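Subject: for your reference before the review

Hello V.,

The reviewers asked for a structural picture of the protein, and I figured it would be easier to keep everything in one thread rather than splitting it across files. Below is the amino acid sequence we used in the manuscript, unchanged from the supplementary table.
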Amino acid sequence: QVQLVESGGGSVQAGGSLRLSCAASGYTYSSYCMGWFRQAPGKEREGVAAIDSDGMTIYADSVKGRFTISQDNAKNTLYLQMNSLKPEDTAMYYCAAEGGLGLCVLVEGLFGYWGQGTQVTVSS
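And here is what came back from the structure prediction:
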């Protein structure tokens, strides 16, 4: 059974940084896509960044140049380094994963495994 557990959320001022972590267990796919999504109050969940088993990354335009997704395969952990945070980055952030995808894209419906989320709040 695949489990994803996020951590690292918190409250920061605009311009600050946070690093989110997602610890994965029970994951046996050799080919996979893992990503970060976020949902702000009253808004739909949106894709933030994703990385596949080959290390290819994609980002939403709104976070390019500020956020970096990475993975530590030895620790089975996914990271999201968030710099130059803005109030509009305030949201619940979710880790997601899926195996065997031919294309790793930020489409919510493609991901079958989800964590419980970690809250990020950025104040102005």
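For the response letter, the relevant points are probably these. The CA atoms of residues 2 and 26 lie 4 Å apart. The mean pLDDT is 95.

Happy to draft the paragraph if you're swamped.

O.
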